[in-house]
Amino acid sequence: MQSSDSNIYAVGEAAQLSESGFITGHVKSCIDQSDIAVATILEQSTEPFIREVSIDALKVGSFMLNDVTSPSYDSKSISNETILITSKKENRIDQYIVNEDKLVRFIGMNTNIDLLRLSQMMQKQELVDPSYFYQNRLVSERGPLICSCEGSYELDLIDMIKENAVTSFPELKPFTKAGRVCGRCKMMISDLISQTPVDPMEAKRLKEERQKKEKEAEYAKIQARIQKYNTLHPHNEINTDNLESALEVFDKNREFNKWVSMLTADLKLHPEYEPLGIYHL
Which residues lie below 8 Å from residue 115, measured CB to CB, with a gap of 6+? Predict the structure, then answer.
């Protein structure tokens, strides 16, 4: 966000545009604005900030509040029409705000409405018949939307947790970014993991399998780094037969070669002298 001083930008937890009164607490909008601000400061070409539909959720105990808002929503517009659908049996309230036959905002309490579908309707500015909301409750077969950043629904996450025997939030990382983009739904996902039963033996087996794959991937990266190092420093080549000891030598040699490069630069010598310095020292 550009401040009153054209050379000063501010980045916070709320993204806003003073000209239109647009405000969103959604972290994605903050990230988009900060990326554009940095690109502008660095004089790099960038697209202008585009206001998108925001999806927010708040859960306290068994109470869930959802808010889907279009950037064109104006709370003061006299053209706004409110459609309220309640269910005492489900302890649920769905509030639709329509402006000129277009959905501009939805507020749901303990709702099971497909929020992404509502978001698409707002983004595309689809014309809607108010009776549509009564006839089609847009109930999501995948349960409530948990992570709006990744579009992850409750039942999809539960299936993912069961199939991969996930027992903690960090173990979910290889399968989805849910809960890691803005972090707002992290606690909800952690609760979902703790409430989903998994076979402890299967969880242990899959965890060991994941750790083995992670170690193999890490060693592959190490080998690539050492190979690159050996190409750049043939006079100080490292043997990769034993990766553990090779990595230890790599870290020591890397620091030593940094010192040699710095010394070569300080003496204003051509880079071709660097191998000679390493060889003699």
Answer: 55, 66, 68, 106, 108, 140, 145, 148
